[in-house]
Amino acid sequence: MERFGKGFKDAKLAIDALTGKGFSATAAAGFYWDAKIVTKLAQSESIQAAVLLHPSFISVDEVFYSLKFLTIG
Fold first, then answer.
1. What's the domain of life for this entry (predicted)?
2. I need a surface site. Which of 8, 13, 15, 27 has the fewest CB within 10 A?
């Protein structure tokens, strides 16, 4: 599952860049495999809202652990 680690790092860099530009809140949406990355971002408190669309490779516990504002489609 190395894909998820790289995706998380790349997303975190983008979020940090936005924060550096003055954005105070960020959200992320993940479709299928990327829902795992969005879940990890929510768990790390990097984002304030998450949208998971047709999520894959995540457990119910992972989702409930990261609940803030969550939409699952």
1. Eukaryota
2. 13
